[in-house]
């Protein structure tokens, strides 16, 4: 696929006489693709069955003349007022039982039959009109799916979903443990939606009901997308179909959602308005890209990359000089096949008038545009080397579970524990050692990995436990942490010593546990095989959670220093078959994760990525393959020049310069290295 470099463009926001100037500036920046129309339903169908594509046709004609192709968005994220006025019961209802009113976006119930028919109509009309358009190459369905609706329609749909899943009420009552509080259901119509979800524990619903409702809402969005995908497949067989995943991922199982797509797309902002910081976290971007790359085990599109300071009511810090170029190459290094910046020009009105784009409100080129233009010209020159890049097989994997995510959202166990944040921190511990990581689901095959991390795998299926056992017995190294194996797939706590299905494999049982108050730590004495006691124990401490372990065949490698469990096991290492498993009985902090991952990497025999001997902190190396030639992306995320020691002579394909033993890389700069002998 041709590498695409583009912007999100909203010509409907600007006078017609401005369009030629916009396109001229795009062409100067080597932009070859735009995304259009995902919020333009009110203009495309101002009245029922009264379609007006003239303005979009004209914009596409101008873009085509400039050699800029288009991806169209189905505009269903933001229906026009007349649609919702026709079906006022289609507004979503919150978990508190309050119906939304018109305004904002995604205010609809995704199960409402009337709304679904409106969506099918506009999708059919757009697809039919643009199926043969020479400048339209694909479709984005809707925009940044999320879901939260508890309306009567959803309740009926949920009951139908449960009927299909369980077959009978006896099975459902058993799975949920409905006998608790006397909630045994005798008719499907009695089953509620969990209105008080996450509000107050006294009024909380059954954990089984809450987990199933989250699964149901996620499946609802999968079905909502499929509704449009089937129309587009039928009417536009030559076009691709994608969806731009938002940066939350918290209420839709995007792995399931991706099955109906040709490839996954992503919107990502390093400097975001609710985290007003002068720093960015490249490891979080790496996690996000690798997470998305794992949905379909192939490259992805970046449909929104930050083009300026972002903000709704408050505004983020602005991208520093060189950062947008750096972010572009980091995304490419992690699998992005197309880069599209959000947005072309900052809107002067509406909710996102402070969500800045490549151009500011005045529309005149300034620093950010100049950086995008220089990057576009550079990418055009490098395009033959950036297309059809293949992954270098990772030897480490991080298991991330949507069932665990959904279950922890209702029962975080410790007030300040957040599952996704915890996953990102384990990823960061490996990222900081320059270890390539695949982010995979619990049911993924583990062949080919040397190291697998399964932190806080709270909900554990028997088949997934069996695969972890097979992996270890075949010679793999596995990390398991506290809050693993606690629940079965019905969200019931297992009736066996924790970590439940993995207790025998871990060679340990949890005798007792306690959450720690935020800010309270318990010191650890740690001694991992092959590492000095001083190196290990310095600063080692338990945070947030303590499992008091009883070894059952495994060896104690860490003990608590304080509390009534001083001297008791905090971590146990066990051998099983040809492999080993480390059970870490605390959620820990950065120092502990760094210590443990250093040992895991050494024990698993993993090598850092890239053509480097020494990689300074804040510098990332990522390897990609092109026609069996290895390219190493070196990304300096710091604010100063860094020296990278190389394993041998390399040529930077960006500059053409050859470095023998070391490379000096300026702040926010990028090098793409290939070995001279290759």
What does this entry look like structurally?
With 678 residues, the protein is α/β, with parallel strands linked by helices. It has four domains: 1-31 and 263-388, Glycosidases (TIM Barrel, Alpha-Beta Barrel), CATH 3.20.20.80; 65-237, TIM Barrel (Alpha-Beta Barrel), CATH 3.20.20; 396-604, Class I glutamine amidotransferase (GATase) domain (Rossmann fold, 3-Layer(aba) Sandwich); 612-675, Immunoglobulin-like (Sandwich). It is 31% helix and 21% strand. The chain contains 18 helices and 29 strands. It has a nine-stranded parallel β-sheet with strand order 5-4-3-2-1-9-8-7-6. Strands 12-11-13-14-21-20-19-16-17 form a nine-stranded mixed β-sheet, with helices on both faces. Strands 10-23-24-29-26-27 form a six-stranded antiparallel β-sheet, covered by helices on one side. Strand 1 (4-8), helix 1 and strand 2 (33-36) form a beta-alpha-beta unit. Helix 5 (113-130) runs parallel beside helix 8, helix 10 packs across helix 14 (419-431) and helix 14 (419-431) crosses helix 18. The protein starts with a strand and ends with a strand.
Q: Topology of this structure?
A:
Layout: E1 4-8, H1 19-28, E2 33-36, H2 41-44, H3 54-65, E3 69-73, H4 81-86, H5 113-130, E4 136-140, H6 152-166, H7 169-176, H8 207-235, E5 240-242, E6 244-245, H9 254-257, E7 265-268, H10 282-296, E8 300-306, H11 323-333, E9 336-342, H12 367-386, E10 390-391, E11 396-399, H13 402-410, H14 419-431, E12 437-440, E13 451-454, H15 462-473, E14 477-481, H16 503-506, E15 508-515, E16 521-526, H17 533-537, E17 541-543, E18 545-551, E19 555-560, E20 569-576, E21 579-584, H18 590-604, E22 612-614, E23 619-626, E24 629-636, E25 642-646, E26 650-652, E27 658-659, E28 662-665, E29 670-675
Parallel strand pairs: 1-2, 1-9, 2-3, 3-4, 4-5, 6-7, 7-8, 8-9, 11-12, 11-13, 13-14, 14-21
Antiparallel strand pairs: 10-23, 15-18, 16-17, 16-19, 19-20, 20-21, 22-25, 23-24, 24-29, 25-28, 26-27, 26-29
Helix pairs in contact: 5-8, 8-13, 10-14, 14-18
